[in-house]
Description:
Layout: H1 9-35, E1 59-61, H2 71-75, E2 81-86, E3 93-100, H3 109-113, E4 119-121, E5 136-138
Amino acid sequence: MKKFKKRHPLYYYFKNIADGIISTYSGMKLTFSYIFKKPETIEYPEQPILIPDGYRGVHTLDKTKCIVCKSCQRACPTSCITIESNGVGKNADLTKFEVDYTKCLFCGLCSEVCVLQVVKLSPTPPVVVTDKKDITISLL
């Protein structure tokens, strides 16, 4: 086992001061480098948001193509999709298709498993509401 050399307490005192000065210098250097750069924030209501390709926003539904297979409901890991229908198979009539955005992860699994690509995630950002009851949205 290696023994450490015990140093004088003043050594550690001045070492801590030097470490503090060096870390303050490196932090201030980083801070001052951002003074001359263009700001990364935007004024949201006045300036539009640039949405990148592949952004997963709110759900869209093409109810004319939907065969009510409920694969999107089964694939959802949080069970945020609620589907109700009258009838079975090709004669099924879609009566309820709701998405609870308090649970939704926007993972896109529902749109991947949809056979006919009826359910898709649009590039529209999620809705903003003031009441929790209003966040469950019907897509019919």
